[in-house]
């Protein structure tokens, strides 16, 4: 279970290096659009326990609540191709009392070219009733320690694509 330590630095961003698999690609050898979600979610699921010592199932069991996706906003910039090594990064872009927005993005292996950007919005709900509930306890501490808290009300996904492209060119 996550225990906030004020002396510890919590990285805001996770990173994984993965290869694009043949079975996930279309006849043009591009990663199938729907498969981006699998790559993004699997990368985050692998990295969060390593970086933060948190298993999401522990939060669910202790607080009897879980995040439920209610919106995806995705921008396909450049195709990922079969056999290509890519980098997947993710972060909690923003959160409030009962909602989180997680940002995922994929680059080429050299981290110079943006391939795809995904924003996933999730509501925190009780497992039993399926009703919205507030983040509390270790869940809230985790969000405060790891969230970027961007001003997403004034940021579109297309503007974020531009920001990331500029940042990657400077790497």
From TrEMBL:
GO molecular function: hydrolase activity
UniProt keyword annotations, A-Z: Hydrolase
Lineage: Bacteria, Pseudomonadati, Bacteroidota, Cytophagia, Cytophagales
Organism from which the protein derives: Belliella buryatensis
Keyword tRNA-binding (UniProt): no
One Pfam family matching this protein: 4HBT_2
Name recorded for this polypeptide: Acyl-CoA thioester hydrolase
């Amino acid at each position: 279970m996550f225990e906030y330590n004020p002396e510890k630095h919590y990285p805001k961003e996770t990173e994984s290096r993965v290869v694009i698999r043949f079975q996930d690609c279309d006849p043009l050898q591009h990663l199938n659009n729907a498969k981006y979600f699998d790559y993004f979610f699997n990368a985050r699921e692998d990295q969060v326990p390593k970086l933060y010592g948190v298993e999401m199932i522990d939060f669910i069991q202790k607080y009897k609540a879980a995040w439920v996706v209610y919106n995806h906003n995705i921008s396909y910039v450049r195709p990922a191709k079969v056999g290509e090594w890519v980098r997947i990064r993710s972060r909690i872009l923003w959160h409030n009392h009962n909602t989180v927005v997680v940002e995922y993005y994929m680059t080429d292996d050299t981290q110079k070219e943006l391939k795809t950007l995904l924003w996933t919005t999730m509501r925190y709900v009780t497992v039993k009733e399926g009703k919205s509930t507030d983040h509390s306890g270790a869940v809230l501490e985790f969000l405060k320690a790891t969230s970027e808290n961007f001003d997403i009300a004034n940021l579109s996904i297309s503007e974020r694509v531009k920001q990331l492209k500029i940042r990657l060119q400077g790497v």
